[in-house]
Amino acid sequence: MRIDYLHKMQRVYESEIERMQDMINHSKNPREVAVSAKRKEKLQKQLKECREYDEKISHLALSRIELDLDDGVTYAALILFGKNAAIIKYLPQAEIIFEYRSSEASGPANQREEFKVGFFACYDRVWELVNLRNDKQHYQEGFFVFDIATFNERVVREAILNAV
């Protein structure tokens, strides 16, 4: 439910909020601007509610996962859902490292985070780290200017999944 419905709804709200902001920025009609501003405010409240709910259920979903390797849990399940203690015990070499370097020069990274937990426990955090540096590119079509993210979230998330 969380991935199939809630995350999709969050993306729909975000997209619609961007569309309303675009209408506010580019419309010459004061009535249209007022309607768009009111709709944007309502959508922001709905998005906030979705994010709060997502935070609550993600915590519950992740806290209920217990692994017992004595009953034949696979390494794949451990990598995806394992807790820190189980990963250290059974797969001490398994970890995800995020590093950001502002240049190609060798030396310490500008930012580094290490994750020794099941992949799904840190999946969203890895995207957040990538998204911190996700600039918007401006694309003009006719009279309208659209902001397009440099890194598409769906593509980056799929690349992260493939890397694991």
Quickly count the helices: 6
From the N-terminal CA to the C-terminal CA, the straight-line distance is: 23 Å
Low-confidence stretches: none
Strand content: 5-15%
**Mean pLDDT, all residues:** 83
Helical content, roughly? 55-70%
Strand order of the largest sheet: 1-2
- Tell me the total number of β-strands: 4
* Structural category: alpha+beta
* Major β-sheet profile: 2 strands, antiparallel
Task: Spell out the helices and strands N to C.
Answer: HHHHEEHEEH
The geometry reads as globular
User: What is Rg?
Assistant: 20 Å
Polypeptide structure, described:
- With 164 residues, the protein is α+β, with helices and mostly antiparallel strands.
- Helices cover 59% and strands 13% of the residues.
- It has six helices and four strands, in the order H-H-H-H-E-E-H-E-E-H.
- The chain has helices at residues 2-26, 30-63, 75-81, 84-90, 119-131, 153-163, and strands at residues 96-100, 111-115, 136-141, 144-149.
- The strands form two sheets. Strands 1-2 form a two-stranded antiparallel ribbon. A two-stranded antiparallel sheet has the order 3-4.
- Strand 3 and strand 4 (144-149) form a beta hairpin.
- Helix 1 runs antiparallel to helix 2 (30-63) and helix 5 packs across helix 6.
- The longest helix is centred in the N-terminal third of the chain and has 34 residues, at 30-63.
- It is globular, with a radius of gyration of 20 Å.
- The mean pLDDT is 83.
Question: Which terms would index this structure?
Answer:
single chain; about 160 residues; alpha+beta; 6 helices
